[in-house]
Amino acid sequence: MSSWAAKLQRLPAGVAERIGERIPAGAQPSASSSSNASADASDDVPGAVPAASTKTDVLAALREKMERLKASSRHAPARAPSLPVRAESPDTLPFLAECDGRLWVRRMVLGPSHRVGVVPVDLALTADPAFLALLALDPAVGACSFRNALYLDLETTGLAQGSVPCLVGLMHAQGEELVLEQLLLKNLDDEGVMLERIAERVAAASVLVTFNGKTFDWPLLRSRFTMNRLPVPTPPTHLDLLHVARRVHRSADVPRSIKLQRLEIDLLGLERVGDIPGSEIGAAYWHWLRTGEDSTMRAVVDHNAWDVYAMAALVGLYGRPLEEELAPGSARGLHDFLPQVAWTLKRAGAMGDARKVADRAVRDDGGTLAYLTRAEIAKALRDRDLALADFEQVLALESLGIRKPNLGPGTRSSTKARLELAKLYEHHVRAFGKAHEVATGGTGEDEDALARRLSRLARKATKTEKKAPST
Known about the structure:
By secondary structure, the protein is α+β, with helices and mostly antiparallel strands. Helix content is 53%, strand content 10%. It has 3 domains: 3-66, no CATH class; 96-320, CATH 3.30.420.10; 327-467, Tetratricopeptide repeat domain (Serine Threonine Protein Phosphatase 5, Tetratricopeptide repeat), CATH 1.25.40. It has 19 helices and 9 strands. β5 (149-156) and β6 (165-174) form a beta hairpin. It starts with a helix and ends with a helix.
C-alpha cells in the first residue's frame, strides 16, 4: 500500500464517502482520482490546502490562497479602537538623545498664556532690574537684562559631598517666549557632556537666577567641573531668590528656612499635587538607573520643571516696578509684605522709595511692624517728629494687644520702641521724666547700660523740676 492510500484509509468514514469512493487496501490511487479527492476534501474541510502532484503545484496553490486572504483583508471594514490612543504615556520620559546619545534633552516652549498659579510666567521678561537690585542688595543686578536671564535648578544623586547632578533644569528667553531645557544624565560617564552644555548656557547669559544657588547649586557645579577636568565657567551676576525671599517675607510666624513650594502657595496661588519630596529624588534616580522604570523618574522631571517655572514667576512678581506696586487698585503681589519691602529698601540706601512704601504700609496695614518700620526710616531721614509719633503708636498698639500676625514679635517691637522713645524724649523733646518712665519698662540694653540711663534721666528730671517756676 502506498503512503497516500494508507493515509486515506485512516480518514473517518464520513470524510472518505464525501471524497467519492473508498480505496480498497493495496490499491494505488491514480493521479486524477487523488487530485479530485483532495480538491473535494478541500472544499469541505476548513483550512485544507489543495493537493498537488509536484512541489511546484503545492507552492502555486499556497500563493493563490495567500492572495485570496490579502484581498479579503483589504475589503474588511477598519476596526475602531475601543479607547482613545495616547500619543505619549504620562509615565514616559519625553527626552531626545543628542551628542551621539550621550546627552538626553527635553525642550518645552512656554507661551505668553502660561501661568504659574495666578502669575503669568512671561512677566519675568519685563522685570525691573533696578527694583530687583534693591531687593537683592546687589547693585550689579540693576545692570542686567532679564530677557537674557538663565534660570538654573539641579536635582542630584544625594545631598552628601560628591553628589552628581543627575537632572538639570535650564530656562532662557527666545523672543517673547521662555524655553525650558532639561538635561538628563542616563550614564554617569557622560557627565562631562552635560557640563559642557551648561557652560554654553551660562556664558550666553547676563544674569543667573537660582533659589539657594549661591549655597548649593553653583558650588556643586563648580566642583563637578573641576572633578571632570573642565574649565569652570565664570558666572554672570547671580540673583539668588532665596536671599530676596528671606528679606521680603521675614516675620515672626515664618521660619528663616523658606521653601520654594511655600512661596508658590502663598504668593503664586499654586499648590503642587503628587510632587516628590526633594529628599527622595536621589533614591528615585538610582532606582531608575537600575530598573529603567520611567514612571519613577517622571516625578523627578516634573518636580524640576515646577522649580524652574516658579523661579521665573517670582522674578516677575518681585520685579514689578515700584510705581505699579503702589498704584491704587493694582494687583499687588507684595501687598502683604510692604513693611518688609520698605525695610529692605532702607538697607539698600533707597530712602525715598523706602519712605513711600512705608507710608503705604501704614495706610493699608496699620500694624506694629508698619509703624515701627516707618519710624526707623523717619529717624534715618531726621524726621524726628514723625519718628516720635510712630514709636508712640507702636507702644499704644502693643498695650492694646493689637498686633497683626506675620508682622514680628511684639516684645521685640515694644522693646525697640521704648529704647528709641527714651532717646527722643531725652534729646529731642527734652522730656526727661517721660524718658525715665518709658525706659523703666525695659529697653533691651544690658543691666549696667540701663542702670546708667535711668540714673542719668533721673538726675536730669530732678534738675528740670527744680528749675521749673513754682505755681
